């Protein structure tokens, strides 16, 4: 029986968002069910108006420019495109965190259409039950 | 070998990085009919192991993994 992974995308930096999108793809390849829950800075990265600054990482700062250059030069898809592709291919659901959405006055319509719904933590934990939770 | 088994679909994922080629293969697999032979070309170093592992795990038939000139070709048959 295929398993289940639920990922909390809390960090808003590209390195972590990308890691989450890559793991989601790998889970799709293994026919797993995946719930991705965006909160804090992760949620801000899903705003349609792109008002949140895209930062590669808070770690390894001296490498940042080089890494960004490599990603661009080699035409690596963005984390969002990768996540969209995974969602088109497999059983992936994407949620926004209700707490953060309320605090920041963000509505579902303000977010990228990849978002299926805005849900509270109780619902998310209930969805995650019986599977693994990754906090990224 | 692949000269004998002609693929019904070729996925040219050369230039894409992990997990790109594997995801493209899975997409092509979902659109294919049972019995179709699908071939994927990849220059990514993960695909050579990733794709055969997925093909076997998903209950399909791995026809072969071939080193080509500067890329790898993996051929599968959709058996379910």
Strand order of the largest sheet of chain B: 1-2-4-3
Query: How much beta of chain B, percentage-wise?
Result: 25-35%
Oligomeric state as shown: heterodimer
Gyration radius over CA of chain A: 15 Å
- Greatest interface: A-B, 17 and 14 residues
Q: Largest sheet of chain B, if any?
A: 4 strands, mixed
Largest sheet of chain A, order of strands side by side? 4-3-2-1-5
Q: Helical element count of chain A?
A: 6
CATH-defined fold name of chain A: Hypothetical Protein Ychn, Chain: A
Mean pLDDT of chain A: 92
Structural class of chain A: alpha/beta
Please describe what this structure looks like.
The complex is a heterodimer of chains A (136) and B (80). Chain A has a single domain, classed as Hypothetical Protein Ychn, Chain: A, CATH 3.40.1260.10. Chain A contains 6 helices and 5 strands, in the order E-H-E-H-H-H-E-H-E-H-E. Chain A is α/β, with parallel strands linked by helices and 136 residues long. In chain A, strands 4-3-2-1-5 form a 5-stranded parallel beta sheet. Chain A starts with a strand and ends with a strand. In chain A, helix 1 (14-29) runs parallel beside helix 4 (79-89). Chain A is globular, with a radius of gyration of 15 Å. In chain A, helix 5 links the parallel strand 3 (91-97) and strand 4 (117-119). Chain B is an alpha+beta fold and 80 residues long. Chain B has a single domain, classed as Translation Initiation Factor IF3 (2-Layer Sandwich). Helix content of chain B is 29%, strand content 29%. Chain B contains 2 helices and 4 strands. Chain B has helices at residues 20-31, 47-57; strands at residues 9-12, 37-42, 61-67, 72-77. Chain B has a 4-stranded mixed beta sheet with strand order 1-2-4-3, with helices on one face. In chain B, helix 1 (20-31) links the parallel strand 1 and strand 2 (37-42). The chains are: A alpha/beta (136), B alpha+beta (80). Chains A and B meet through helix 1 and helix 4 of A and helix 1 and helix 2 of B.
